[in-house]
């Protein structure tokens, strides 16, 4: 426990300008949900997304190139992911748990990260694929308001778009 606390302290000491304590992060998520609710957005329309995992060896190389030492730990990213999942449960929102999904069954999650911290093209595709599953369940029942793009007359788009159905 003391060693773990030391790691956390060292991690936040190395990048204090970007550090938000996990408890404050969790409260911020709940506050955002309350704000959205006050603006008429119900919790079932909100989706939280956890941080992805951190590949420490790759990120450490990037840090060294920038003249600093490793300032992110995967275990700490996991704590923030867990806080996000818990906040989503408390708020009644869905959550896309990238941290868990990307590491599921011991898969090589490094392909999803460009530098050990930020998403690569494949990482963004991973997010889009999993996010679409959550979004599709919310919008599949909605009617189309505008015509399919192939049904729009390119010579007279107004007639296609402004006609009553």
TrEMBL record:
Pfam families: Lipase_GDSL (PF00657). Signal peptide: none annotated. SUPFAM superfamilies: SGNH hydrolase. Residues 1-20 are annotated as: Disordered. Gene3D superfamilies: SGNH hydrolase (3.40.50.1110). GO terms for molecular function: hydrolase activity, acting on ester bonds. InterPro entries: GDSL, Iah1-like, SGNH_hydro_sf. Residues 7-20 have a biased composition (Polar residues). Belongs to the 'GDSL' lipolytic enzyme family. IAH1 subfamily. Probable lipase. This is Isoamyl acetate-hydrolyzing esterase 1 homolog. It comes from Takifugu flavidus (sansaifugu). The lineage of its organism: Eukaryota, Metazoa, Chordata, Craniata, Vertebrata.
